[in-house]
Amino acid sequence: MASAELRIIRRRIASVSATRKITRAMELIAASRIVKAQQRVMQSRPYVSSLIEVISNVGRDAGGTGHLLSEVRDVSTVGIVVITSDRGLAGAYNSNLIRMAERAIGHHTLEGRDTRLFVIGKKAQSYLRFRGYRIDQTFLGMTDRPNYGHARAVANLVIESYVSGEVDAVEVFYTDYRSVLYQIPTRVELLPVQPPTDADAPEGRSVSYSYEPSAEEILSRILPRYVEAAIFGFLLESSASEHASRQRAMKAATDNAAELTKVLTRVANQARQAEITTEISEIVGGAEALMASER
Amino acid sequence: MARPFNVDVVSPEGTLWSGDAEFVVARTTEGEIGILAGHEPLMAALSAGPVLIDHDGDQRTTIAVHGGFMQVVENRVTLLTDRARITAGDRAEAAQEALKLAEGDPLEFEE
Questions:
Q1: CB-based contact A50 B111, cutoff 8 Å
Q2: Do A78 and A117 meet the contact criterion of CB atoms below 8 Å apart?
Q3: 0.90 cut: is pTM over it?
Q4: Are residues A159 and A211 in the same domain?
Q5: Chain A residue numbers touching B44 (CB-CB < 8 A)
Q6: Best exposed site among A4, A106, B19, B108 by fewest CB in 10 Å?
Q7: For residues A89 and A26, what is the distance between their CA atoms, to the nearest angstrom?
Q8: Do B15 and A218 touch (CB under 8 A)?
């Protein structure tokens, strides 16, 4: 019969190894998702860089991108887009980004600017709501596997708020995916669209185009596409970062669980041995007593 | 044989088609336009419709596009489109497909 102590330890070992199996599975899932997410980031890049090339070429040819979306205004209200995940268990992925965004909001408030919050992901939503910020719009279910439609939904809202004058500038906070081991929270000024410089489009050169229909019309069509594509890029980068962070967090959890099982097994063995020793000394003590009474 | 030039069809989901072609037909907002090698620099907004790419002598690839842009610079044609699909059939089928793309929910995208 096992003692109470031994039973409790064995139960803990069983529970820790069950947890280990779960975190291991999550680690493997995240690892496979990273590869896919990375591919999609790579695949989306030619489109964005071509758009930038076109915008800068047209801008140079037509003498500036004089368009509503690139018009610089006095900033009294800033739109802030925060891209986080819907699920946790990804280490410091969400908290790093939210902290950065919150600092920026504080900074704007200090400078006397108003902010509008456009939040992507449940994590930022619940944090900011708990802290008493007013959230203007929340998008959920995007960050696990973002598609272009998601980006367009966000872009439409952002463009609409900018064009209507509700916000005078838009900043995006997302996590830039540098490598599996390195992702950094990043702030980008999305609107007004800054005319790309020559450094952004090394392939750009002075071309005099013929336009169908006209340079202005092309710009007014292409700038919203650019905003969409940029947001799509941010969503993909964030998604890749999320999966990478989750893989790392789950790997740590799996390793910890393995370590804990080892320690617990040792404690259990010790308890078992102590029990056996007690039993033996009881038997020996009993036999001694019997022998003493027979004498 | 016509001189070939470089064509890329790029969407946010990836490069759809890339290679050398001899002749490209696309539908701009102003009407259909055909591109041969040595075309003057052009920047055009596309409307929904079929894009035909003749390449490798007798091959023809048809792509249904839902709007976008076409840039022609120095014998390089770049088609930028947020939604496009390569269709196996002829021009009429591509036109049908483009119409379907255009009528679809603008926020609905495949994975």
A1: no
A2: no
A3: no
A4: yes
A5: 211-212, 218
A6: A4
A7: 9
A8: no
